[in-house]
Amino acid sequence: MAAVKSHPTRIVIVGGGYVGMYTALGLQKKLRSGEASVTVIDPQPHMTYQPFLPEAAAGSIEPRHVVVPLRKVLKRCHIVTGRATKVEHARKAVTVELADGHVEEVEYDVLVSALGAISRTLPIPGLPEVGIGMKTIGEAIYLRNHVLSRLDQAASTNDPETRKRLLSFVVIGGGFAGIETLAELEDMARYALRYYEGLKPDDMHWVLVEAAGRIMPEVSAKLGVYTVEQLEKRGITCYLDTRVKSLEGGHVVLDDGTEFDSETIIWTAGMKANPVLRNTDLPLDERGRVRCTAAMQVQGLPGVWAAGDCSAVPDLSRTEEDPTATCVPNAQHAIRQSKLLAKNIVATLRGKPTKDYFHKYVGSVAGLGLYKGVGDVFGLRFKGVVAWFMHRSYHVMFMPTVNRKFRVFVDWTQALFSGREVVALGQIHEPKAEFDRATKS
């Protein structure tokens, strides 16, 4: 006679990003009452839709509308706001450092590794001190306030060298994140200058630095060249096949001998697997990602699953050409993987077969500011307004929840008639400054 379980199957999802949230959402819809419990562990109480971060930073979308509160969406799941620091599958336990600082263990029967990638940095002098990332909503808000505050300060100084430094903006990394961030922020700053007496677009110095010989490898080389041409027409200087040697004190030194000063240095030069995975007993590949089958089960570990940026899921659309091919880390794969992952977990719980993940890459679209974009879809190239519209349509379709889709659409509609918001709210970074002055006066 089979043993009767004393509790529902405990499913623990480590990570609340695309994969974590979508998998949990799928599980809460498909699981029967009492069949299993679902716990999601993440340092933030929300999921961030990262493709919209550049638009949030540039004032086209309200920042709160590109994040999805986990507790509101995952009503049948248990949300743990904390950082997973260790996974011991031998004991089926996850060690979590909670928001209040104390540490506890969360036990599981089924584990889902949904950890997201982190920024890949290089040992460049000065980078830790002056670099600004672009992976979180906090960074997007900070960048928006920072760029607009540089315009305010530049309009208030008569020193030409100080003004030049304030109006020099650098983006390091020519992937999608870097190009969209650069293009959106430059477009916002150009729009904002109409309200600044004494400043004109030619006073700004926007710079892109990319170590490879081309930008946006996800699209065709011709479209990459076209994008560079369009950026240069807007006065943006593009350094390709160029590396940064030093950033100390905001003094930018490139390996071709170029030197200049800047107070805004944005780092988007690649991602790497989450270092938490090194503190687990899960099998990892040479890039630190979890080794998986095409069904997203972790190799050799029944009951353990992984998907998203930090998983090495075979890309069945390319394995005939390259047997070692794995899915590239992007939202397109992460969202689709998570939906199948939820189905596979439920199928396993009910003794049914799983399905392999298969998705042929259809292409990519990128926004380059208001009414500007590029796209490479099904081998067809799109430019300008058409690509911009495709970019927005595609991403609002994949934006989680009807609530957030509606809010983003309303933001776009308002911006269409009233323009971008160009207010710097820098005080949020020093919320006690005015109160402290009042107490000392």
TrEMBL record:
Keywords assigned by UniProt, alphabetized: FAD, Flavoprotein, NAD, Oxidoreductase
Transmembrane segments: none
Domain of life (superkingdom): Bacteria
Keyword set includes Zinc: no
Molecular-function annotations in GO: NADH dehydrogenase activity
Record-linked InterPro entries: FAD/NAD-bd_sf, FAD/NAD-binding_dom, NDH-2
Pfam families: Pyr_redox_2 (PF07992)
Every FAD/NAD(P)-binding domain range: 10-334
Family statement drawn from the similarity comment of this UniProt entry: Belongs to the NADH dehydrogenase family.
Protein name: FAD dependent pyridine nucleotide-disulfide oxidoreductase
